[in-house]
Amino acid sequence: MSFNLYFVRHGQTIFNHYERMQGWSNAPLTDKGISDGYAAGDRLENIRFDGAYSSDLQRAIQTAEFVLSRNKQSGDLKEPEQLQQFREQFFGFFEGLPSKKSSQLVAEKNGFQNMDTYGDLMANLSQDEVMDAMHAADPTGDAEDAQMFWVRVEKGLEQLRRNTRDGQNVLIVSHGTLIRNLVAKYASHEQAAEKPENGSITIFEVSDEGMKLKTYNDTTTKW
């Protein structure tokens, strides 16, 4: 048995535009973010989706609706089923703070040298280590660590495995760090070092043997 998961990163939000940490916080899509969603839909318009899901955060729900509105092959499938399991990583105390400031605080708290940006953290640590470092640096203790994150996400993946049949295609509109973490776990840290763009498409083939990355961060291909 195998099926395909088409992950789309939500469109650009105000927080993305101003480079602020955005996990479970909701911020509206920008005009570009709306265009990101429709553009992804245009590139996926000829894929027949047998199921469509999004995280339960508004930016993902809206993007999924934009994608499905352009699809020509999926019949009446126009609304995603919302799954909390595919929310972005929760950044706790750091939600809404400038990304660079947050990264500097995480680096300082954990004793990391020469890691002034989120990109520096991603380049020098594994995805799980970044989550654990953020949790350790959070004075409230609310930011998800790797174990919290994966317990949640794996429940979502298991639900998809139960609900999906051989050969089917499934749309999931989710978030940049979540997609990045999946790529690091099921493909390679080197690939995950590349930040997925808003509206980009990442495809996994799921089989009895596991998850195989087929496409990552694609913003140009029309399937």
Please tag this protein with its features.
6-stranded mixed β-sheet, Phosphoglycerate_Mutase, hydrolase, 9 helices, His_PPase_superfam, alpha/beta, His_Pase_superF_clade-1, 223 residues, globular, 41% helix
Count of runs of 4 or more consecutive helical residues: 9
Low-confidence stretches: none
Helix content: 40-55%
Number of strands: 6
Strand content bin: 15-25%
Organism: Weissella sagaensis
InterPro entries: His_Pase_superF_clade-1, His_PPase_superfam, Phosphoglycerate_Mutase
Keywords: Hydrolase
Protein name: Histidine phosphatase family protein
Can you describe what's shown?
- The chain has 223 residues and is α/β, with parallel strands linked by helices.
- Helix content is 41%, strand content 16%.
- It has a 6-stranded mixed β-sheet.
- The longest helix has 18 residues, at 146-163.
- The protein starts with a strand and ends in a 5-residue tail after the last strand.
- The model has no long low-confidence stretch (mean pLDDT 97).
